Amino acid sequence: MRLKNLFLSGLAGLSLFIGNNAQAQAFLPSFADLAERLMPSVVNISTTHGKADFAEETDIENHIETTVDSIFNAPQTNKVSLGSGFIISEDGYIITNNHVIDKADSISVTLSDNRVIEAQLIGRDAKTDIALIKIDGQLQLKPVSFGNSDKIRVGDWILAIGNPFGLGGSVTAGIVSAKSRDIETGPYDNFIQTDASINQGSSGGPMFNLDGEVIGVNTAIFSTNGGNMGIGFAIPVNLIDFVINQLKAHGKVDRGWIGIKMQPNSADISGSVGLDGNKGVIISEVPENSSAARAGIKAGDIILKFDGKETNNTRNLSRLVAETPIGKTAEVEIWRNSQKQAVKVLIEQMPEEPKQQKENILPLNDETETIENLSPAQMSDFGLGFSLSEINAVLADKYQLSEDTAGMIVTAVDANSDAAKKGIKTGDLITQIDKKPIIDGKDVANYVSEAILENRRPVLLQIKDGEQLHFVAVKLSDTKPQLKESK
To answer: Is residue 1 part of a domain?
Structure first.
C-alpha cells in the first residue's frame, strides 16, 4: 500500500511538472518573426592578413578570438579572419569591432543572400573597439534601427545574431544579465552583460531588444576554454553614436581633453570633506599647464557636474569630457572647502598618444612590517593605523625618492586598521592630510587632533604610490596621537 501511494505521488508530481512546463513554454516568446525580419541587416565579415602580421597578433584573454585558420583553405601566406557586423544605412555603412578588421589587407562582406562584396575601411577606434566599413550602396540594403541602451533593464530579453565559427546567420537569445560592466579593456568600458550564447566569430554582431532595435555590439566573452560559458559582453549603442559620427567625418575619433587624473569617490571621503552622499569624482592629480590647471581645478576637488551633467563615476566623466566639442568652454561644478563652486574649463584635443601612467608600484618584500610585530615604543601612528617617518637618506634610497620630496613615508601598517583595508602599505608617501601639506610629524599630529575634536571624523590623505597620486579617507583608531622623533 505504501509503495502504491509513493507511485501515485510520483505520477502526481510528474503531472504537475509537465503541466508547469507547458504553462511556462506558453509564456516564453518566439523569436521566429523577429529573427526573420532582422537577418538581412546582419553580415558576415572575413579579412585577409599578410604573412608579416602573424608575429604581431596575440590572443586577448577573455575576448572573442575571431581568427579561424584555413577555414576556406586559404594559402599559407594569408590568414582568413571571421567576424560579424550590421548595416546601419542604405548607402552601405556597416559597424563591426575594431579587432575584427585590425591589420587587415582586405575586407569582404557576405550578405544574408550570400552575395560577397569587398568593403572599404572608413575608420576605426581602438579605445571603444569599434570600426566603420562601407560597401556599395546600390544593393537594396536593409539597415537596422537603433534603440536606447540606457533604457534596458537587467532581466530584459535580448537577441544576438552573428557568425560564430564561420556559421553565418546564427541566432541566439538570452537576457540582460548586468549593466555597466568594466572588464578593463579600455577607458570607456560600460558593457552590457548577457547569457545569450556568443562565440568566436560573433564579434561585431548586433544585440537586439524585442522591438528589433540594436542596443549593443557583441564584443567579448569571458571564457576559460575559448567557448561560450554564458557570460558575454556588448558595447551599448549609446556609447558608439559619438564614435560613428567621428569616424564618418574624420576616419578617426577626436576626443575632448582637460588633462586631469581622477579616482572614484567614496562615502568616507565625502564624509571627510563635508559632502552629503557618495557623489562626484575626485581629482587626484592636475598636471601643470593642463587645461584643468589653467582653469583653477586642483587635486582634491570633487567634480559634481560637467557641462550641466552629473558625474557619478570616472568612466562617466571620461566619456562626458571626451564627447564635448573641442574648443568649447564647459562649466564644471566642483566641491571645495565644504561648498560648491563653478569653474570654466577649455576643452582641448586629446593627444594622439596620451602619456601612459607608469605602473611603478613598489613591491612588498620580506622587510615589510605590520604593527602586530612592533612594540608600542616603535609606534608613531598618530591614531591613523600606520606609522610614519620623515624622509631620510636611507628611506629616500630604499623608495627611490628625490632629495626635494615632501611628505612622510609609511613604515608599518596595522593589519586590522581601516588604513589597511583601504590599501595603504609600507612605502606609500603621504603628502597631504585634509588637503594640507605635511612637512613633519608635528603637522600630522595637529591635523589628526583637529579631526578628533570634530567627532573623530575620517581624515583625507593624499598618497603617492610610485608615480600615482590618489586620495583615501581613513577612519581614526582609538590611539592617542603621539609624536615620534625622526631618526
So the answer is: no
- For residue 209, the tally of other CB atoms under 10 A from its CB is 20
List active site positions: 99, 129, 203
Asked whether residue 301 falls in the same domain as residue 408, the answer is no
Give the C-alpha separation, 35 to 181, whole Å: 27
C-alpha cell at 40: 538581412
Together in a domain, 302 and 388? no
Average pLDDT, the chain: 79
Contact (CB, 8 A) for 245 and 255 = no
Residue type, 190: N
> How far is Cα 317 from Cα 306, in angstroms, rounded to an integer?
7
Q: Say whether pTM exceeds 0.70.
A: no
* Closest by CA position to 31, among listed 237, 209, 176: 209
Q: End of a domain among 349, 379, 403?
A: 349
Q: For the segment 405-432, what is each residue's pLDDT rounded down to a tens digit?
A: 888 888 888 888 888 888 888 888 888 8
**b/e burial code for range 396-405 (CB count within 10 A of at least 16 → b):** eeebebeeee
Give the closest residue to 323 by CA, choosing from 253, 264, 250: 253
Quick check: is 234 in a domain? yes
Same domain, 203 and 303: no
